[in-house]
Amino acid sequence: MLMDIISNAVLPGALALIMLGMGLSLTPADFLRFRGRLAPVLGGLGSLLLLLPLAALVIALLFKLPPPLAIGLVLVGACPGGTFSNLLTHYSRGDLALSVTLTAIASVCVIFTMPLVVEFALEFFLGEQRDISLPALDTMGRIFLLTICPVAVGMLAKHYWPDFAAKWADSVKNIAGILIVAVFLSIIYAERESFAAAFSSVAPPVIVLNFTSVALGALVGMLTTPSSAERRAIILEHTIKQEGLGIFIAISLLSIPEMVLPLMLNSLVGITVGTAIVMVTRLRSKDSQTENE
């Protein structure tokens, strides 16, 4: 009963609120800035949408994870960058415009990439044993309704009622964050025995994937832009994920709670690593200013 309420109401509502909050902070220009910086935007998107899911697949194989956990890890890799990356980019004095652009465009592209990646993972890890599927068109439609539609509503509100959008954007995000945390805690409680048994085996690959994400972001940044601010934006976009979307697919569409553990662990690891990157960056910046003085 509890899981039915979570999967059918609370989780979709929280995801829609997150995207509404994103929309309240976006303008059409955020989707068009890539015209002046094609290399970092296309490089970042290619890495986020293609290389990271592939890296997750390889890591799942190397650690010999059971199918549900392996598919969950691939889900982590397939999730787009999260809006929290924009805040961390701001704190790290990174290129905020690039961060917002990558988040916005990746959130649109994932409608098409996520169902294909997950369907491939299901076939790869379950093969003949699989008794579930993720119909591409139906999944794209559901993701569209829960992501693009709220973003569009938020952007329209920002355009026609800018004062309202400015006043409520943070509140909507905070409410969504509270709901997501409530979902996390509810799932942990409902699946506490299976999560406890799987924690030790899934924590190492999640950590490896997170550091691989940082390394990929650094490599893409190095290859596509000479700007250190743009590189920081790309790295943090690789570090912070929209795990809520992956959890929605695992719980609401596939009904496999075991897949959620890698996503929830990655959320904690990603925030920790992202915060550490910001602290190191600010310390280096402070040291540089002291030396110049």
TrEMBL record:
Cite the entry's keywords alphabetically.
Membrane, Transmembrane, Transmembrane helix
Name the Gene3D superfamilies for this protein.
Answer: 1.20.1530.20
Protein name as annotated: p3 protein
Give the membrane topology. Multi-pass membrane protein
Bilayer-crossing residues are: 6-26, 38-63, 69-89, 96-122, 142-160, 172-190, 202-223, 244-261
Give the lineage: Bacteria, Pseudomonadati, Pseudomonadota, Alphaproteobacteria, Hyphomonadales
Q: Which PANTHER family match?
A: P3 PROTEIN (PTHR10361:SF24), SODIUM-BILE ACID COTRANSPORTER (PTHR10361)
Q: Which Pfam families would you find in this protein's record?
A: SBF (PF01758)
Is Transmembrane helix given among the entry's keywords?
yes
Q: Which GO terms describe its cellular component?
A: membrane
Where is the protein localized?
A: Membrane
